[in-house]
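Schema walk-through. Below, the input block comes first and the output block second. Nothing else is stored per chain. Lengths vary across the set, and this one has 214 residues.
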Amino acid sequence: MNKIFKQTIIAGILAIMPFVLTSYILIWLFKFFSEPGQRFFEYFLADREIPKYLPELIGFLFTFLVIYILGMIVRNVLGKRLFSKIEKAILKIPVANTIFNTIKQFTSSISDSKYDTFQKVVLIQYPRRGLWTITMVTGSSKDKSGRDFYHLFVPTTPNPTSGYMIIIPKDDAVDSDLTIEEGLKAVISGGLLANEINAIPPRKVDGKINNDNE
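--- output ---
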């Protein structure tokens, strides 16, 4: 009875945790982004009767406007150069460089723009036969005999910004049902967020299908 009670409590906690953490993170992000703009507007509206939520809402919108303008600057050639110089200066500071580099790698790993060149997700037997690996197709080519090949990027866990580039025959790759986002989530999570049904083909023995992989 005691064991069942504990398991039920744990099941309840695990069930509600995603909702609680999501709410907490969203509220924290709202307050984090609204605070700079809120202080700015509260300075000018200090002597006026205004709803309590208004400075927070205005501050949130104002901060996002600043972030949008900052994004436009970063996408500009001159803006990229400026931020590149700032990054180089930070990377020369002890301790700060480690923190900055870690955060930079994390934000790069979840950036969609970095993976725009990925065409699709395929499975290959790598690093040896019988072990299946999630890879991203980046291009294709043919050899002199006309045989088709895939150019593949093999991301590493938990940081998919690093990995290996390999070229294999298209016949050695198996198309998966994963989107680019799903493939990257599976890699980053070390398989925790992978689909329950994979695309690994069943093994054939004497013309019959065997569920064991090669």
